[in-house]
Automatic annotation (TrEMBL):
This is Bifunctional diguanylate cyclase/phosphodiesterase. It comes from the Bacteria. Residues 23-271 form the EAL domain. Signal peptide: none annotated. It comes from Aminobacter anthyllidis.
């Protein structure tokens, strides 16, 4: 009993060290993966709600590490903390645009971390990539999360203005999952708002959830901004979102994220699903 508190301190420290060293290991693995350009891009179809046609894709980073696949929800925060998100983001962007330039007419959406926007060369780098592949700026949408609204970093705002001036579209991602307000939607005038999948998840069994989804779609439309509903997993959810006024739909009901080969084979000979 005399030593019990000492023992627990040791156990705690060991646990902390293990977590730390795992973090460091992951970071080192990620550095190597970026060096060797091992990250790939998956493309998830985005569907026009009225016609049912494919209208675009969202590019999603994929990492098949030596020890198996690691999810973006795990490695994106590691990249952000380690100062690697700029490199990671530009590799994903380049791959998405290179591929997008072989899919004429298709809209390509790319996720961008708020941290990337704090780099004053961000918009310039974006333009260089578009020029390299002769990719029309209006076919690119940058998806931003509300982190960019909360931090009132001047450089982030400047980057957004520069991106817009290039003719690139800007979407607010994951709306309804956090704090983004009606005020911020009006102030930023996004080209599109993507509703978070948590808003869709329970609408079949929870009447209030269904009303909230319906009201949120109508609210964003009332601000003059087109809506994409994400996380559509059932026919019921797709139909509900369409009737409520969502212009675009995305989710496993239509397709999971696909490799470029799968997407080309499944969608691009005949654009209908
Ligand atoms: P997100 O931008 O909200 O992307 C949508 C996520 O939902 C993707 O997860 C997608 O695979 C998943 N999803 C699509 N349809 C469904 C559905 O019907 N049901 C469910 N339950 N999930 C669905 P993923 O690919 O694991 O990405 C997770 C997050 O990681 C993304 O969320 C995004 O925030 C981040 N991320 C992914 N790629 C990048 C990137 O290149 N750069 C940055 N900065 N973040 C990225
Ligand atoms: Ca997204
Ligand atoms: Ca999202
Ligand atoms: Ca998300």
């Amino acid at each position: 009993a005399k030593h019990s508190s000492d023992d627990s301190t040791v156990v705690f420290n060991t646990h902390l060290e293990t977590e730390l060293s795992q973090q460091v290991k992951l970071e080192q693995q990620l550095i190597n993966a970026l060096d060797r350009r091992e990250l790939t891009v998956a493309f998830q179809p985005v569907i026009d709600a009225r016609s049912g046609d494919l209208c675009g894709v969202e590019a999603l980073a994929r990492w098949n590490s030596e020890s198996g696949p690691i999810a973006p929800d795990v490695f994106i925060p590691v990249a952000e903390k380690a100062g690697l998100i700029g490199i990671l983001g530009s590799q994903i962007l380049e791959e998405a645009i290179a591929q997008g330039s072989r899919w004429p007419g298709l809209q390509i959406a790319v996720n961008v971390s708020p941290l990337q926007l704090r780099n004053r060369y961000f918009a310039g780098g974006l333009k260089a990539t578009l020029d390299k592949f002769a990719f029309e700026p209006h076919r690119l949408t940058i998806e931003l999360t509300e982190g960019v609204l909360i931090s009132n970093a001047d450089q982030a705002r400047r980057s957004i203005s520069e991106i817009r001036a290039l003719g690139i579209k800007v979407a607010l991602d994951d709306f309804g999952s956090g704090f983004a307000s009606i005020g911020s939607l009006r102030q930023f005038r996004f080209d599109r708002v993507k509703l978070d999948k948590s808003l869709v998840a329970n609408i079949l069994h929870d009447a209030q959830a269904a009303e909230v989804l319906d009201a949120t779609i109508k609210l964003v439309n009332a601000l003059g901004v087109p809506v994409t509903v994400e996380g559509i997993e059932t026919r019921h959810q797709a139909e509900f979102a369409r009737v409520a006024g969502s212009h675009q739909l995305q989710g496993y009901w239509f397709s999971k994220p696909l490799s470029k080969e799968e997407l080309t084979a499944r969608f691009l000979d005949n654009r209908r699903i």
